[in-house]
Amino acid sequence: MKVLLQAVRIINPKSEYHLQRHNILVENGTITSIGSDEPEADTVIEAEDLCVSAGWVDLFAFAGEPGLEYKEDLESVAAAAAAGGFTEVLCLPNVEPVVQTKGAVNYLKQKSAQLPVTLLPAAAVTVGTEGKDLTEMIDLHHAGAVAFTDGLKPIQGADVLLKALQYVQPFDGVLMNKAEHTRLTEHGQMHEGEASTMLGLKGIPTLAEEVMVTRDLQLLRYAGGRLHFSLLSSAASVEAIRKAKAEGLAVTCDVASYQLAFTDDTIPPFDTNYKVAPPFRTAADAEAIKQGLRDGTIDVLVSAHLPHDTESKKLEFDLADFGITNLETAFSVAVTSLAGELPIETIVEKFSTNPRQILKLAEPTIAVGEQANLTIFSPTATWTPTEATAKSKSLNSPFFGQELKGKVIGIINKGQVVLNNSF
Length: 423
Known about the structure:
This protein is an alpha/beta fold and 423 residues long. The chain contains 13 helices and 18 strands. Helix content is 28%, strand content 23%. The two termini are 18 Å apart.
């Protein structure tokens, strides 16, 4: 199959064509021509402000399979990822059974081998993600696990995190942790502030995140290794990471792309589609996150894709599960929320280049003769996500019916071409 990307702007710092507009021909998964020629093709893709970059990588997504396929399975998460422009997705280990054996790692690799999106195994740090005994991380690394995290369950024990940091150093592995002191967030429903008080909901203080960021950084200073913080949300956390990087610590971090879309006082009261953890916080926190993205303190934007079935969301607010689906909207939400704040090249860097560096994955090059691992998009086109067009099995999204800026056209990866319904 021949696919022609017509007059497409190339965003790929490794490529000699970076920031240039050219026609790109992809034949059976290989880039065969870049230039002004217009060769014949089976499919021609052209759109206003058409851009292409190396395929995007998501560092935080829940796949459901095995055990929780009614929320999401590998086929549906791959379809949602492709629709959102991702060619690789790091899958959290919080399935049933937990990803903590070589067999579980191999299951994910084998099941996703034929899918257009590469599903990357993140293995658990502790057995059963219970925060007690360490898993066999060296064996899991050799089996193909590319990162280690307890995913949705923050590591509470300082001794456990310390040992894990030491354990991954022989193979230069990355330890990922969600900064949350669970005793301080217990029964919390939304950001602790004026809005939570007025609504009569128990708040989730920024302190719960900040004390764990401080603790984990102290452990990193002591033990060494590489540490990545998942889903930061507060201004003080961003500042702590900024100082740690200036100090020379091997620390990276990400934020959910939706974290900037709302603040605690702008979300509709008691609408469970806005219930996320960490919660939407204040305008000051949002501004600090924007500054962290601008100056490089925050390395990565993630989808934080957490699908839930209707029975888990259509409940009273305090009973509903945390999380929203966002693989299909992650890029568009980021572009919409960061309009005028970050150039598109920087946003793409936080979806593509930086996550690959953290996971030590090779970055694809847009050049003749290279295998195509591409995301095709328009940063200026608008679209409106709907339940009818969603690829995820679950529909817990606050973005349905909202016009978003920045549209993914499709991906080309592993010799497969996946295009959204209209371009």
